[in-house]
Amino acid sequence: xxxxxxxxxxxxxxIANVLRLDLTDAGFEVEHxxxxxxxxxxxxxxxxxxxxxxxxxxxxDGGDVVQRLRKNSIVPVIVLTARDTIEERVRLLGLGAxxxxxKPFHPDELLAxxxxxxxxxxxxxxxxGELQLDAQKRLVNFKGEELRLSPKEFDILSLLIRQPGRVYxxxxxxxxxxxxxxxxxxxxxxxxxxxxxxxxRDHEGYGLLRTVRGVGYxxxxx
Length: 222
Description:
Layout: E1 5-9, H1 13-25, E2 29-33, H2 36-46, E3 50-54, H3 62-70, E4 77-81, H4 86-95, E5 99-102, H5 107-121, E6 126-128, E7 131-134, E8 139-142, E9 145-147, H6 151-161, E10 168-169, H7 170-178, H8 188-202, E11 209-212, E12 216-219
Parallel strand pairs: 1-2, 1-3, 3-4, 4-5
Antiparallel strand pairs: 6-7, 7-8, 8-9, 10-12, 11-12
Helix pairs in contact: 2-3, 6-8
């Protein structure tokens, strides 16, 4: 059985190293990012099972990281913070954090909180009609059959299924899935959408993926 993966987004190298040692000893596979942007990239590309997120990062606030993650991911996020106020806790939970722990903390408490979140999120599935998407296992089923999607196709579908009926522009999809790194005039989004639509049609998913001419794309029940 493969080990569960934890992404630590922490700019303090001493704290990051301690966390890596404690989590590795507890049986987890650990990745580290020392900035918000590198953490978002790793979260998108490596698909960790849980994220430990420091609030005070050098490029932008950890709360902004939570907001960006929640646009296309349900990965559990535990915030590590020294800001021990009711207002700050309410803000973090409102932004989409699953839990928070106040620095300094005991390793045993952190491990206990991690296990709770992994247990709670282990079987979450997003459903739209006969379409089911398991964000943690990165599996998609339609009408009882597995859809074999590329990583980017999965990420796009994961984005759309969270807000059925909402029309996402090509620019929004490019920003969320490729972090805005697509060159101007690129047709990469359209190519991936065409491939995704073809795979849905192969499983009789006609009309599930909708194109709004001149605006963008949305997902609806067939």
